C-alpha cells in the first residue's frame, strides 16, 4: 500500500519538477517557457500519479492531504497511519529529486556557468528553482 504512495508521489514530483527544469534550464522557442505550459504538465503529472496509486493507497501524494484525511475522516484514515504515509511521500519526492538531478545535471551545470551562479552562494537559489515550486 505504501509503495503506491512512494511511486505516485515520485511520479507527480518527478514529472512536474522536470517541467520546471525544462522551462528554467533551456531557453529556446521549442521548450516550455510559459507558466501555463508548466502548469498543464503538473496537472497531467497529478492525473497519472492518481491513476497509479488511487486503488492501493488512496492517492494522497501530499502530507497535507494525508493530515486532512486523518482530521476529516478518522474512521477511514487513522492518525497512526500518518507517519508511514508521510515517510512514503517524503521518500517518493526525494527519489524524484534524485532522478531529476541525474537527468538534468549537465543542463544545471551549463545554466550555472552561463548565469555565473556559484553553488552555495546567495544567487544559487535560481538554479535550485527546478526542484521546488517556487519561481
Automatic annotation (TrEMBL):
Cell wall biogenesis/degradation among keywords: no
MF annotations from Gene Ontology: glycerol channel activity
Keywords for this protein: Membrane, Transmembrane, Transmembrane helix, Transport
Subcellular compartments: Membrane
GO cellular component entries: plasma membrane
Domain of life the protein comes from: Eukaryota
InterPro entries per the UniProt record, alphabetical: Aquaporin-like, MIP, MIP/Aquaporin, MIP_CS
Transmembrane segments: 6-26, 38-62, 82-104
Matching PANTHER family: AQUAPORIN OR AQUAGLYCEROPORIN RELATED, AQUAPORIN-9
Name of this protein: Aquaporin
